[in-house]
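question for whoever is on the cluster today: can someone run the full assembly for these? four chains, 988 residues total. i dont have access anymore since they changed the login thing
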Amino acid sequence: MGKILIPIGPQHPALKEPESFNILLEGERVAAANVTIGYNHRGIEKACESRTYIQDMYLIERICGICSHSHSTCFIQTVEEIAGLSIPKRASFIRTLIGELERVHSHLLWLGVAGHEIGFDTLFMYSWRDREFVMDILAMLTGNRVNYSVNTIGGVRRDISADQIQEVLKAVDILENRTEYYIQVAYEETTLISRLAGVGRLPEDVVMRLGATGPVARAAGVKKDVRRDDPYAAYADMEFNVITDDHADVLGRTIVRVKELMESYKIIRQLLNSIPDGPLIVKAPRKIPAGEAVTRYEAPRGEDVHYVKSNGTDMPERVKVRAPTLANLAAISYMLEGGYLADVPIVIAAIDPCFSCTDRMIKVSNMNSGEESILDWNGLRDYSIKWYREQGIELNNIKTFRGEVR
Amino acid sequence: MIDMEESLVKELTKKFVFLEGKCIITRERRISVEAPKKAFLDIIGYAASKLKFEQLCAITGLDAGENLEFIYHLANREGIMLNLKLTVSKANPEINTVTAVYNGAIFYERELEDLLGAKVAGLPREKHYPLPENWPEGQYPLRKDWKPDAVQQK
Amino acid sequence: MRKVGKMLPLVMKMLIRKPATVMYPSVKPEMPEHFRGKLEFDASKCIGCKMCIRDCPSGALEIEKIGEKQFKAIVYLDRCIYCGQCTDSCPKKALKCTKCFELANYTRENLKVDI
Amino acid sequence: MGTALFSILVFPGFIFLGLYSLIIEFVDRKLYARFQNRVGPPWFQPLADFIKLVSKETIIPCEADSRLFRILPAFALASASTAFLYIPVWGVKSLFPFEGDLIVVLYLLTIPTLTFFLAGWFSKSLYAEIGSIRTLTQLFACEVPLFMAFLGPAILTGTWSVSGVASYYNAHPLFALFNIPGLIVALIASQGKLERVPFDIPEAETEIVGGAFTEYSGRLLALFRMTIDIEMVVVSALIAAVFIPLFATSLPVLGFVLFLIKTLLVVFLLTIMRSVLARLRLEQMVNFFWKYMTPLALIQILIVLILKGVLAA
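^ ran it for u. tokens below:
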């Protein structure tokens, strides 16, 4: 049997967001993989240039639904650096606390998605059930489950009370208990290990060559963690280990993530036990003085880099966002090639891809014709045929994909 | 506090004498260097191999009026970030690819091509990224003179 | 040590445990204290400074003058991103977030509401 | 003639089988949900799903062979339902027993899998083709241990009829204990046959969307779904008849209740298996069946042969 080109995406059950992987198959083996992204472009970087810093804050927060706090903190830190603001200690502790809780919820979410990709739905359901604890905690502290909007330029918007500290500690105890169990599962369950071990290998030298970050890099033994290397917020005062693993495969990434959860609990306890009293916010100017700065932030998925250039007005001159997934994306083809088709979803999932973060720049809508119409089934069909014809594709001429490749 | 940064700057200026005075330590763990275009690949290669800036974090492209400015954010394992700035004129926005030094830079450079109209020499011509396939030629959204209504859906 | 069916004991225990499912919508959940839902407007406090409009990231608010020192607020529920910045920006605290979140509607016109 | 027609079409034939398969699907889904600490679907959910699918538009790809595309689901459904006629529902006697019906049942159970392969292959869709190749690979891997596991107990009884095997073990209940390795193989292999986790490789949705059924929709998909459910009833009833034919009574009502208990027990075991394991890869699955399941089935046959020798002596 010859080679088959199989499209995974833009719409596919294994993918939670639109992106496209063209997989060239030889039997069940992947001969080549090609990544296409850009389906989610929203023009955020350009949009930031025509909005004030306060408006940008919320726009940046909505780059991603899972690591919203990461992006917002990274952006605000950059702005604060340009403006020369140093935020109160209590505010930086609260920022760090929300950041760590977000990491917990993101890693638990990842564990569930990974379980689902390899057909282990029970693990999926359990880890998402446990994720509800941390979601409830986040909702209690900030008001909402996803976009916390807790940051503001010069500090934070929400305080944390003594009762809330107790609630968080209680939830962390439960979660720690559960996480220990997941670590056991990751080390012991045979079917899980046989699906994860040796899959999507990415050794240390390739990690460095392709610039992968986050758990993907740490699973290959690269001790790279911005929280330790380039400390921000309250991390300089915290004691924690940078988890690394030497498996360099999907199993390694799983182990790194579940063990990182334990480190996060440790950090959360330290934060709550030593949170200083004091004000929450320093007054920030509306107009940020001219300057530029670049900040790094260890998001759950890896290193997040924001660059801001200001020009003395209340709007930034340029905002640049480098989301962690973009750094890891270059490694995807390497990891997929030579593997099995069955492993494609879990390998893609193992970098914890977030394509909303990655695709964010330009979107053009039809400003002139604001008309909306509702198309029925046949109308939609006609529209799609017309659209493809305009692109130069005649649907009736398309035969199967087979045989046309190489 | 900034000994390591200073020694890195010293090492860099020893190798490239013309960089004297162009390296600024903006703050702890941040070094900013204005690199001339003709020696750029040498500098970035030296930084990557000898100074151990093993990671390319991002490439920022800026529209600076007459010129395009590119900032290569490099990082080493100690958390120090080296921001290499490269300025080219808009009339001839040609830069060389750094994919030989940093293999993973391909997406960053394609972004520069699509959004700012940089001509990256040595980058294989592929599909548009991140803009859609039917994007008109010569429209570079991140340039300051570009307005969203310049492009209309057909 | 590896074993097949590591989760079996836990799975069996679940048979007698109550499901973790939240029975929404038959059981209404209690929203947290700081929840940022639909906005509430206190017309008596508003001074018409329009700080809220200036800071709104999505242009979801309109303040209309309806008389001498009398204002009314219009919010576009479809544009609002529920960040709550307007409540922070308002110098007189005339705007407030409520816990109301069930705002879906069939037409876009109905999403433009006076508050 | 009238009663025979009634038995075939209504009870315990087609209509009962259809309804019971929906119940079995419900039990499976509900148990799965409860194992995962969820509430799970209401009791009418499988029926509602079926009605929904039937009422939906059926789309047939232009590329596909339209006639084959339509006829295959009916074919699969017919063969799966026919297999049920030779399995005892109450007592130890099936409706129309004859010598050799065990083999016929096993063959009839192979036909749906083959039609899945054909359906996928003639859909002319990438995912469906990959799915159908996987279906066929899996068929070759799990059919052998499945056949061998069922033949083991039959060798001892000296008959190739399900009813005969059932009545033999009902008369000699202790001998059923010797068939435990076969029971294990049969349970695992039927999980593979029914394409459920950890052997749901042919329709692994995160990899190849819907597998062989990717292009199927509406009524035709409903028939396929029904076939899978019926297959599950038949397989669990067959396992119950061959491996746990104990306590059979001549009282029809009691026997029928016993049948329900036994099949539900088998379903329970199958559901546990699906909740605690992750999906294997194709080559791991093939390895597993040839390396562990087939030898285990051989051991079962060996045990039975020795036992038979001892009994004859």
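summary bc i know u wont read the tokens: The longest helix of chain D spans residues 126-157. Chain D touches chain C at residues 33-40, 272, 275-277 (CB under 8 Å).
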